[in-house]
Specification:
Layout lengths: L2 E5 L11 E5 L2 E5 L8 H4 L15 E3 L5 H4 L2 H6 L5 E4 L1 H28 L13 H7 L3 E3 L6 E4 L2 E7 L7 E8 L5 E6 L22 E5 L12 H14 L4 E4 L5 H14 L8 E4 L1 H11 L7 H5 L13 E3 L3 H7 L7 E4 L9 H8 L6 E4 L8 H6 L4 E4 L2 E4 L3 E4 L9 H8 L8 E5 L3 H15 L3 E2 L6 E3 L15
Helix pairs in contact: 4-5, 4-8, 6-7
């Protein structure tokens, strides 16, 4: 029984993360994400999974984002019955994110059937709220830095990745038949150094195999003053009498924006206008963030007072219900609207874009990565018309982007993190990146570090034993 690694997602794309480790008869999957963006990727969510769901014994989650967890309810409904390991805060976030994902899919299917714009009759959700709630019963918490044994041959621990609350680098230790061991490190999504809210990614100094994200493998984030850029966007829009619409991921990006808005407000650098969170998920996620101040950067937690979470800006309003959301559109004066989804693929943001994109006074501000094929990417790339709910909507609003808000490490930061390894991994596998980003990072890793590196294809299976020394007494790897 050898050791194999198979890549069932996030291969030459940034969505659908699923990496399967088979070791001595045990099968463990790293993340269980939903494919998003291009239709050719999204259809994979509906296709039979390449392996029977019951074939996977356990799942380890790096963090709560839907492209890393959103396939769990579907996987469970099709037969997965194992354990799902997370950090406590990732568990808390999944408690709200997975039912929310199911709700959005149910609502979108219902709306498509009502309006008749789906190609399927009837349109059906990928999974239901009941599926999401039932899979959550499989979750088991593992604190940061606590070694956990899946069985006598596989042990793992979480260390902080600094990407979002609860995000982790996963370090696995695998025991072979001759009692020797080897290590596999999964970077998950690495956060940025010097980020406002969360700590830096944890240094890791040794591994045999590295599964490495490459989202920004070909670029350096703009060296800009985030607050100055945000001030400029808001002030320009207010002078026009317009509204600022921010499509933002409910977990991570929304809280960062609120923190920066509070800083601008307290410095009296932006006009005193209402700020609306129009995402039930973002509202709940922000509360969870405020429940874990010990996971913040010390500069943020030191500034907190009892009952005063630094992630809550002033003049903040929440739109919990559909009626609250609709009421925002009756406001005539300038406002800031933060709504999900971050890539403009679903949720309440679509209704705001439908109404705000045609008006030149407004601004749509992108603050996160827009995957290829998403509506957000098309708007950001300059398309003058986008389809929303079956209607062609003209894009006349000002379109802005602040990529310094990104929660993903850029190329320089990826190399800073890789620089902690005392010796090269036997093999580095690049995942979670688009093709050009991966190719650029691959070339740089070879040139600057001299490491062996591969870019696996979808469903490619790698025999890890061929990279390991022969086991004692055998003369060859088993």
């Amino acid at each position: 029984m050898g050791s194999f690694l198979q890549f069932a997602g996030a291969t030459r794309t940034v969505t659908g993360t699923k990496h399967i480790i088979q070791h001595r008869g045990k099968v463990v999957m790293l993340d269980c994400g939903l494919f998003q963006g291009l239709k050719e990727l999204r259809v994979r969510n509906w296709e039979p999974f390449p392996l029977p769901a019951g074939y996977v014994d356990d799942i380890i989650l790096s963090h709560a984002h839907i492209d890393h967890t959103g396939f769990l309810p579907r996987f469970f409904a099709h037969g997965f019955d194992g354990r799902i390991f997370t950090t406590p805060s990732t568990h808390d976030l999944c408690e709200i994110m997975l039912p929310d994902s199911a709700h959005i899919q149910e609502e979108d299917a219902r709306y498509a059937n009502k309006e008749g714009f789906s190609k399927h009759a009837p349109a059906e959700p990928l999974y239901t709220i009941d599926d999401a709630e039932r899979v959550l019963e499989k979750f088991q918490d593992v604190p940061y830095g606590s070694a956990f044994s899946i069985n006598k041959n596989i042990q793992f621990e979480f260390v902080d990745a600094g990407h979002i609350l609860g995000s982790s680098i996963v370090r696995l230790t695998m025991r072979r038949e001759d009692e020797s061991t080897f290590r596999v490190v999964f970077s998950g999504d690495l956060g940025r150094y010097g980020e406002s809210i969360l700590p830096d990614p944890t240094a890791v100094d040794e591994t045999d195999f590295l599964i490495m994200e490459s989202t920004y493998g070909d670029r350096i984030h703009q060296d800009v003053d985030i607050q100055a850029e945000l001030d400029d966007v808001i002030s320009r829009t207010v002078r026009r009498g317009g509204k600022v619409v921010i499509p933002a991921f409910a977990v991570g990006r929304t809280q960062e924006i609120l923190y920066q808005l509070r800083a601008l407000q307290e410095a009296q650098r932006i006009p005193k206008i209402p700020v609306y969170i129009d995402s039930p998920l973002a509202i709940k996620a922000t509360k969870i963030f405020c429940d874990y101040p010990e996971r913040f950067d010390p500069e943020v937690s030191r500034g907190s007072r009892p009952g005063d979470c630094r992630l809550l800006c002033h003049n903040l309003h929440v739109a919990s219900s559909v009626q609250d959301s609709m009421a925002i559109n009756t406001i005539d004066e300038p406002v800031i609207i933060i709504s999900a989804s971050g890539m403009c693929e679903a949720g309440r943001i679509l209704h705001h874009l439908k109404l705000k994109l045609p008006d030149r006074r407004n601004t749509v501000l992108f603050v996160g990565y827009q995957a290829e094929g998403t509506r957000g990417r098309r708007i950001l790339d300059g398309e003058r018309e986008v389809k929303i709910h079956g209607e062609n909507v003209p894009v006349r609003a000002e379109i802005r982007s602040i990529d310094a808000f990104s929660a993903h490490a850029d190329s320089g930061e990826l190399f800073r993190w890789m620089g902690n390894f005392r010796r090269p991994p036997r093999m580095t596998f690049l995942v979670h990146g688009e093709w050009e980003q991966m190719r650029a990072l691959e070339a740089q890793i070879r040139e600057r570090l001299g490491w062996a590196v591969q870019i696996p294809a979808y469903l490619e299976k790698v025999d890890l034993d061929k990279y390991l020394p022969p086991m004692a007494g055998d003369g060859q790897a088993v």
